[in-house]
Amino acid sequence: MKNPDQQNTSASDDAVVAGRVRIFDTTLRDGEQAPGFSMDRRAKLRMAQQLEALGVDVLEAGFPQASPDDFAAVAEIAGALKSTTVCALARCQDGDIDSAARALQAARHSRIHLFLSTSPLHREHKLGMSRAQVLDTAVRAIERARGFCHEVEFSAEDALRTEPEFLAEVFSAAVAAGASTLNAPDTVGYTTPDEIAELFRYLRQHVHGADKVVFSCHCHDDLGLAVANSLAAVGAGARQVECTINGIGERAGNAALEEVVMALKVRAPHFGVDTRIDTRQLYPSSRLLTELTGQAVPRNKAIVGANAFAHESGIHQHGMLKHRGTYEIMRPQDVGIAATLLVLGKHSGRAALRQRLQALGHTPDDTALESIFARFKTLADHGRELHDEDLEALALGRDPQAAGPWHLLQLHASSHFGGSASASVKLAHDDGHEVGEAAIGDGPVDATLRAIERATGTALALTRFQIDALGEGADAIGHAQLSARHAARDWRGHGRSSDIVEAAALAALAIVNRIERQSAANPPISTIAAPTPGRAQQETTA
Ligand code: KIV
Ligand code: ZN
């Protein structure tokens, strides 16, 4: 790391800009330390690069003193990022501060983030320190960290349960010792919007040197208030929000970055501030995190959930077709989602069905539409969500539920700890021939999908793979949902089985079958074949 006085000023430490809120992302520290979200170094680096593309001002890369791996991850990210300030967490202890400084050595813009509890509960039961000791420990640590780094953030852990006048005293001493960001975390997610706003207003009035520093909030979601509390803090003068992609973090998580950012953007006249975030990178960031951690977001998650821009009910679809503002307050493209999805299910009406069929190139007259609609309702009433392939089948007078032409006869998959996996499949085609193929892959599912690709001669570029358990305990059924690109189109397939590899194989076959049926319905002129009957085996839900 450069001498602190020679460091470039960064995106995060320029003079306080009244109208801009800094986004401090702690996905790789507070988020990653929560159960179920750990990432290896390669994954952390990939995520850090995406967060830089997203435009976060400060990226907390980890806690170097926690483990050699954490140290290495912070060092790697520090060396890789160009414009984002890379931050390392440290307790107010010499060893932590020195580790953080070493890990940040290669960073173009760096910050050491010190934290120490200030609340009476933590002082007594966790630290065994008096007020004076807390104050003294914080000041020494800040002075030491400033010896290494131009930017030092001080966090008063459990600030929202700290006596406000003591918090102001500690923060005043922190400013005098050289801290440039003062963070008041709601460590246990206890506060409410009006309370946190009052605290921030109090701090801005009572901290000596308040005008020289940035006040920051860091809210946990134990009562589901993290985003609301963060926005209330911004309303009261906080100019840095600490948050995470998908709201991951300790216990119930941290404030969700995408929610905070979009609230500030969509309600810009209300809040009167903005961020540097490229909001079109929000959805890609969320997707990448779910891929790297294997933890999906709920369908109804704000901004990035599968339903965030999806409409099924007939009344809503009708409104959306007339004016999208009727039921959407932001455009899906603004958060990086390609388009609004009018999901055709049992709540949908004729208007949405006709519109989707037209988009697919079918223009049924009123009588034909009526009969397609009747068939569509029967399928949808049985709980099916109908995708484009199904609608096309209906428009062509075919049964979208007819499975085949490929059927799974045999499947064998095995994996070895520390090695690759292999799979072999035997498939039967409705035209009477059988084919067997084997492949190796990164895991048994990957190997199975490759074997199916070989056997059917259909290349599938997988874009989504999700397995859910239906039911509980040993009797649970695996429900695999796959999406893949083929011939510049997206295809989806579902499969169910008590064996998850088999569920994935059935889902892949459902896709292959759809592709093959589709090309049989629109064949090149010389290859029209007689339709073959299906043997309902896969596609239990799609
Ligand atoms: O929640 C908290 O108090 C923290 C601090 C380390 C900022 O994560
Ligand atoms: Zn936290």
How would you describe the overall organization of this protein?
This protein has 542 residues and is α/β, with parallel strands linked by helices. The chain has 3 domains: 27-293, TIM Barrel, CATH 3.20.20; 310-395, no CATH class; 406-540, Alpha-isopropylmalate synthase LeuA, regulatory domain (Double Stranded RNA Binding Domain), CATH 3.30.160.270. It has helices spanning 27-31, 41-54, 68-80, 94-103, 120-127, 131-148, 164-177, 193-206, 226-235, 257-266, 268-271, 282-293, 314-322, 350-359, 366-381, 388-395, 444-456, 500-521; strands spanning 22-25, 58-62, 85-91, 110-117, 151-157, 181-186, 214-219, 240-243, 310-311, 341-342, 406-415, 421-429, 434-441, 461-470, 477-486, 489-497. It has an 8-stranded parallel barrel, surrounded by 8 helices. Helix 13 (314-322) links the parallel strand 9 (310-311) and strand 10. The longest helix is centred in the C-terminal third of the chain and has 22 residues, at 500-521. It is elongated. The termini are far apart.
Set out the fold topology.
Layout: E1 22-25, H1 27-31, H2 41-54, E2 58-62, H3 68-80, E3 85-91, H4 94-103, E4 110-117, H5 120-127, H6 131-148, E5 151-157, H7 164-177, E6 181-186, H8 193-206, E7 214-219, H9 226-235, E8 240-243, H10 257-266, H11 268-271, H12 282-293, E9 310-311, H13 314-322, E10 341-342, H14 350-359, H15 366-381, H16 388-395, E11 406-415, E12 421-429, E13 434-441, H17 444-456, E14 461-470, E15 477-486, E16 489-497, H18 500-521
Parallel strand pairs: 1-2, 1-8, 2-3, 3-4, 4-5, 5-6, 6-7, 7-8, 9-10
Antiparallel strand pairs: 11-12, 12-13, 14-15, 15-16
Helix pairs in contact: 2-3, 2-12, 3-4, 4-6, 6-7, 7-8, 8-9, 9-10, 13-14, 17-18
